[in-house]
Structure formats: C-alpha cells, structure tokens
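Q: For a teaching session next week I want to show students how multiple molecules come together into a single three-dimensional assembly. I've collected the sequence lines for a complex. Could you give me the predicted structure tokens for the whole thing so I can convert them for display?
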Amino acid sequence: MKLQQSTLLGLYATLELARADGGQRSAAEIAEKFNVSLNHLAKVLRTLVRAGLLQAVRGVGGGYRFLGNAKRTTLMDVIELFEPVSIEGFENHARAHPTDVESGLAIALVEISEMMQATLRSITIRTMLKMMNPDSTTA
Amino acid sequence: MNSSVLNEASIAVQIRRAAQSDLAAIMAFDERSNKDANPEYWQAMFRRYGDDQGKQLFLVCEHGPEIVGFIIGEVRDWEFGSSPCGWVFALGVRPDIRLGGVATRMYREMCDFFRRAGVNKVRAMVARQDNDFHSFFRSQGMMAGPYVQLEKDL
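A: Of course. Below is the structure for the complete assembly, covering every listed component.
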C-alpha cells in the first residue's frame, strides 16, 4: 500500500495534534518536525479542519488543536479524507475484462484489500497514541 | 458501539466467575443470542467453561445488581503447532455501558488468569467487518499474529 504524500501528512498532523492532549501546535512547528512544505501542510490541515478533526485557533500564538474523538476516529477515517481506499477498482476491472486470469487475480487482490481495510478501520487514534507511547497507562 | 452513558471513572463494577443464574442476563444483551446462540448454547458454554478446571474461565461483570458484561477464555495447547496460549473467544458488554472500560477490565482479568496458567500469549479471532471488537482488541495492544485463518465452502 502506497499512500499519497497528502494522506501521510494528514496522518502525521492528526497524530501529532492528538498526542498534544488538547494543546495546540502551529503549522510551522508541524512542518518543521516532519520536514515538509508549509504550503502543502496548510492545505492538508484545512481538509482536516473541514472534516471536524482539527480546530484552527486564530490570533497570536494560534495554531491547530485536535478536536476529534480519539477513541472513535480510525486511521481509515483520516486516509479517506485524502484518497479512496476501496476494492471497487479491482472488482470493476474484473467485470470489464472477464478473462480467467483477470478475474482470478481480482479475487486475490480483493482479499488483500479487504484485510487492509479491516486493519485500517480497527486502529483508532487512541490506539495509535498507545503504540507510540507503550508506557502510557491510558485505557 | 453505542455511546456510553457512563465513563470509566464512574463505573463501579465487580468481576466474578459466572453462575448459571447469569445466563439469562447475558443472553439479553449478547448480539449473538438473536442469531446463532440460544439457551442450549449458553448452557453448554457454562457447562464447559463455568467450572474451575484451571484452563477455562467464564467471567461476568456486575454493575450494581445487573450483569453488564461477560468474557470467556481458555488455554489451548499446541493448536496448529502453536505453543500453549490463551484464547479469548467470547466477549460482550451491554450496549449502554460500552466505552466505559468494562471490557478492558474483564480482558485484563482474563490475561491475569492466562498468566497464572503459565502462558505468555493471548489470542483472539474477530470477523473482518466487526470493527468494534477488532478496535477493542487493538486498543489492548493486540496485533495481527503469525497465523492466517483460511476457509472454504463445502
């Protein structure tokens, strides 16, 4: 699975802000930490704000803070804001080119895709924070 | 899962071994009781896992006078070539209590039981589309293991 740069930035920003536990970070701080373009990151942050995962804090010392429900928001929720993760492409391809080779390959690819989606839907932001900080005692 | 009416800090619960008289309350909120599981199923589960034999454990969680959760687990030896490990194969929490830490506490009790039984690995199997259970086990630090479940229509 190869995620687009915007998707990765979305995940980085979401996790970085969620770990701040209500605190805020400026876009410049996040861009510097992950060594990415501030322009690109700003677009990604706007998408996350529109989705209700982040809040933009205006004014001096402003920045962004995590607004989502860390126990309910999954990696898939963030990824789908930036790119589709779907098995339809494989299934449609198999339907459009119904040779035994193509349909056989589609079955295998759909299985892989379904497992990937199930994994992404099962890992919440809270779980990610615990993976990043295994000593945390948060339930 | 539905939204919780209680948060973890406010829930006073007690976890204990299941009794036969708990089965009716479990069936009332266990989703499977509307599909595959029936009274005979639960009686059989209790007969097999309710007794203290050192390798099986059937726990319930009480909130006041009410049963609000259950968990069933077992130590299995050398299944599929694996060294002995604990399996959690049934878990349920009453919908209005979910997200309050009840499942976490039962899971930890079960893991303590497995440790006392001498195993250092816990496993579970969840349906791919069952995000709630999948997320719960992930939240406990569980990850995909070295085995892949395969099946075929006969």
